[in-house]
Design brief:
elongated, six-stranded antiparallel β-sheet, mainly beta
Length: about 425
């Protein structure tokens, strides 16, 4: 009996673009084999080399493809050097995929697989995963004043797309320039502070594995991607002032634990394909404040920009992050003579505050706004004499603002991630 000794192929993951991979089968000269490639949708690879090629009929080898008809590379012979070389042209894909290679020795041609490969005539030679591209989305939101903005969300999102880290570990250094223009339909805002990377957040939901009553240790069915400093809340017993302080894989074994030595066991579970045992992703988090919860309920976990890498391997930096608010420009609609009452055509966006300063031709000093009579006038901190129809400018409050940033995405995560800038952290509305 002739033997097939080996099957080799680069089994590293594919990106969504697909691509060509070469494979080599070695064995005794004259050994005969068949090869099947099937994906996770139970579609079979149609090997181009099976196509009858005729130059006269203008027929050429097509690109490889996958279809529902069961096909295989049938009864191929290893050459006199003991080698068979082939290639597979994997297609571009819009969803994650897995390709399984099944090598079969043709016993009718007195061929068998080497004992190093298999004890029967069939060998699962390789599995290759393909991962779709992932997205990083930068968005805006206001938890407390959403209805005051002219739109919800306050501005359009920015989206960057790149190869998933599951497919490649290469750095991309993809640049994204952000410029958000936001506006209020009523009221006004002032700058609370300049934004920082921690003002960007994302959320994920996990399930309680246990019930807690005024405790700190929470068991979750999945702790993957969590990190210290993430915020936790469920709208009931676990309030928004709670943060993760410690994370331990597995659950506490009360029978083996003592007061000074706590023992945690990591449960086992089947993998996604159900063909092997792996460590469960369940584990225990310790939060900052005693809380109560119920097994089976959902826990919302809020991560911030600095947590993205741990969460799903998204790596990015932000530079030149800045918030500016537009000045309010209006005109006087009556002459002012030695008075703190300044009649103006519009008071929209003007707030009474020491930081809201009035300027213009005829305005003396740096008066701030002490009071606003909506649609009528403002009260300045010092008396002014200004002509009718004179342009006056108010800085420090507005209904319009701009947020800019330069983003550098070094790696795209294992799946999509939306990073939302919390406007309430940086703008005070009202």
């Amino acid at each position: 009996m002739k033997k097939i000794e080996s099957f080799t192929i680069d089994s590293s993951p594919l990106t969504s673009r697909g691509g060509l991979k070469n494979y080599t089968i070695t064995g005794d000269p004259g050994a005969v084999f068949s090869l099947i490639i099937v994906n996770n949708l139970n579609k079979f690879y149609n090997f181009p080399e099976k196509t009858n090629v005729s130059e006269d009929a203008n027929t050429f080898i097509p690109q490889g493809s996958f279809g529902t008809t069961p096909v295989k590379l049938f009864k191929q012979t290893i050459n006199s050097q003991g080698i068979y070389n082939g290639s597979v042209d994997f297609p571009a894909n819009v969803g994650d995929d897995k390709y399984t290679f099944v090598l079969q020795a043709e016993s009718g041609f007195k061929t068998k697989l080497s004992e190093n490969l298999s004890n029967n005539d069939i060998y699962h030679a390789a599995e290759i995963n393909q991962y779709v591209d992932t997205r990083v989305t930068f968005a805006l939101a206001s938890a407390g004043s959403a209805g005051t903005y002219t739109s919800n969300p306050p501005a359009n999102s920015y989206v960057a797309v790149g190869h998933s880290t599951s497919a490649t570990n290469l750095s991309f250094n993809k640049k994204l320039s952000i410029s958000w223009s936001i506006a209020l339909g009523s009221s006004q805002f002032v700058i609370a502070r300049q934004p920082v990377i921690r003002d960007f957040y994302f959320t994920t939901t996990r399930v309680y594995n246990n019930t807690g009553d005024n405790e700190l240790a929470i068991e979750l069915t999945d702790i993957s991607g969590l990190s210290i400093g993430m915020q936790v809340y469920d709208g009931a017993g676990v309030g928004t002032n709670n943060f993760i302080k410690k994370i331990i894989p597995g659950f506490k074994d009360e029978n083996k634990s003592t007061a000074s030595n706590h023992v945690y066991n990591v449960p086992k579970s089947l993998n996604s394909t159900g063909d092997s045992i792996q460590n469960s992703s369940g584990g225990t988090i310790f939060i900052s404040n005693n809380s109560s919860w119920t097994a089976g309920d959902n826990l919302t976990i809020k991560g911030f920009g600095i947590h993205a890498d741990t969460f799903n391997k998204t790596k990015f930096t932000i530079s030149n992050l800045a918030l500016t608010i537009d000045p309010v420009v209006t005109t006087t609609d009556a002459a002012v003579s030695g008075s703190t009452t300044i009649p103006i055509t519009s008071t929209s966006g003007i707030k009474a505050a020491d930081t809201v300063i009035m300027s213009g031709i005829g305005v003396t000093g740096n008066p701030h706004v002490d009071a606003v009579s909506s649609g009528v006038n403002v009260t300045a901190s010092s008396a002014q004499t200004i002509e009718n129809g004179q342009t006056v400018t108010f800085t420090g409050s507005s209904r319009n603002a701009t947020i800019t940033a330069d983003v550098l995405i070094e790696k795209f995560g294992t799946d999509d991630l939306t990073l939302t800038l919390e406007l309430d952290n940086i703008l005070t509305v009202g």
